[in-house]
Structure formats: structure tokens, C-alpha cells
Amino acid sequence: MPLSILINGSKGRMGHALADAAKKLGLTVGAAVDAGDDLAAGLPRCEVIVDFSSHQATRAVLELAVARNKPVVLGTTGHSAEEKKHLLALAASVPCVWAGNFSVGVNLLFALTRRAAGVLGSDYDAEVIEMHHRFKKDAPSGTAARLLEIILEERQLTAAALRHGREGIVGERTSTEVGIHALRGGDVVGDHTVMFAALGERIELTHKASDRGIFARGALRAAQWVVAQKPGVYDMQDVLGLK
Ligand code: NAD
């Protein structure tokens, strides 16, 4: 029997990409749900919930998943750190893959960024630049947030080190800050650059997405994987065996 999925956010850009990818992979879309629909109605027909909707919907999605004991793939971004803490505790009661980016290339970028941040050290100024389409509502992107987390972890810094854009007389750059710049425009699916700049050389790691299909295929790979897992919160590095 092909895996049956519930798509939450089905009328959105990712919702459409998920339906296309599911068809190509031979998976069944048991329920397609969007704002205003009853999330619970189609759930008995589905083995896993795939959510790419709005951060405001995440609590309801997780509460229902826990109540009905259904695995979840969560792709929605835009949660505050506080919101995420509560949601993670809830998500841990069911098998859940939660990733700010489901592309294989970006997950390799995460691994390369960790390695580069470790090797290069604080003499190399770290800055993250992301660009997305004009319709994106949250900033910085979930992927940029994860890249920043990795750099902060490797450099043993806290979120207080982050500089969201710069304006005015901000003074010379310190070695303990990490810059983040969000560009918006046109139909850009998702570009991320991690830059390490020292006196005399600069390294840039860049990933450019040109088709949302990469996220959809990754999310469906996660859906097939998560149905066989024990309760707990996993990420795409777990799904791909990159840990
Ligand atoms: P979109 O605006 O095109 O679509 C979102 C859809 O969700 C809309 O149809 C909207 O009506 C629906 N929605 C809003 N509130 C809802 C609710 N309470 N219940 C059910 N549906 C609701 O956005 P998109 O580009 O498809 O992105 C959706 C989310 O996925 C965003 O948070 C985006 O950042 C994230 N995203 C994640 C990845 C990843 O790899 N993790 C990749 C792309 C996008």
C-alpha cells in the first residue's frame, strides 16, 4: 500500500509542490487541508501529516498529531524561539521530522558550515546572506536561522551575537558578532550564502534553490522515513544519515 499523507497548507506554493511530488513518487494524498478546513476530518485516512502552512497553525497540528498518535513532518518556519521551545516539547511525543529546509544540498551546506566555522575560527568574520521571493512573510528564513545556530554553536556564542542588518554609525565590526541580512524580491526560491572573511581571504559557501520540488521531495522522503521511527524530534540530517 502506498503511504497516505495529509497535506496541511495544500493551497500554498509548497502544498502544490508536495501534491506534484507525491504523484510522481506514487504516494497517496489522503487529505488536502488549508486555512478554515477541518484538519481532523481526513486524518483517519492518512498515516502522516505533512505541514507547510503558517507558524500559527503548528500548535493545532501537533496537538492533533499527539491526540491521534500520528507522525508529523513539519516544514513551516517563522516560529519565535519561545514558541519553538513549547512546540518541540509537544512534538517529542510523536515521531516528528522538523526541518527549516528539506533540500539535500542545504543539509550538506549545514554540515560544511559547521566544518568551516570550526576550522576557520573567530578571526574569520561570519556573515549570512539570504534571498527569497517577494511573497515570503518571515525573515530571516528558517534555513538562515539554522546556519546561524550552527555558527553560534561552533563559536560558543549566544543569540546576542547576531546583527540583523546594519544601519547608521554602528562602529567597527567585532570578532564576536555574526551578521545576517535578508533580501527579498521577485520569484527567488531560496539563496543562502555563508561568508567567512579574514584579512587577505574570504570563503563563501552558497546554495541556490531554483525549484521548490527539492523541498517537497525531501519532505516526502522524511514522511516515508518517519512512519518507522520511535517518538522524538528528528531533523533532515537524521533522515539522510548525515549525523
Ligand atoms: P504559501 O503562503 O504559498 O502557502 C501557505 C498555505 O498555508 C496557504 O495556502 C495558506 O492559506 C495556508 N494556511 C495558512 N494558515 C493556515 C492554517 N492555520 N491551517 C492550514 N493552512 C493554513 O507559503 P509556502 O511558500 O507554501 O510556504 C509555507 C511554509 O513553508 C512557510 O512557513 C515557508 O517558510 C515554509 N517552507 C519551508 C521549507 C522547508 O524546506 N522547510 C521550504 C519552503 C517553504
User: Bound small molecules, which ones?
Assistant: nicotinamide-adenine-dinucleotide
Order of helices and strands: EHEEHEHEHEHEEEEHEH
User: Major sheet, described briefly?
Assistant: 6 strands, parallel
**How many separate helices?**
7
Distance between the termini: 30 Å
CATH architecture annotation of the largest domain: 3-Layer(aba) Sandwich
What is the CATH first-level class name of the largest domain? Alpha Beta
Number of domains: 2
Neighbour order of strands in the largest sheet: 2-1-3-4-5-11
Proportion of helical residues: 25-40%
How are the secondary structure elements laid out?
Layout lengths: L3 E5 L4 H13 L2 E6 L14 E4 L6 H11 L3 E3 L6 H11 L3 E4 L5 H17 L4 E8 L9 H14 L6 E3 L13 E7 L5 E9 L2 E9 L3 H14 L5 E3 L1 H5 L3
Parallel strand pairs: 1-2, 1-3, 3-4, 4-5, 5-11, 6-8, 7-8
Antiparallel strand pairs: 6-9, 9-10
Nicotinamide-adenine-dinucleotide binds next to helix 1.
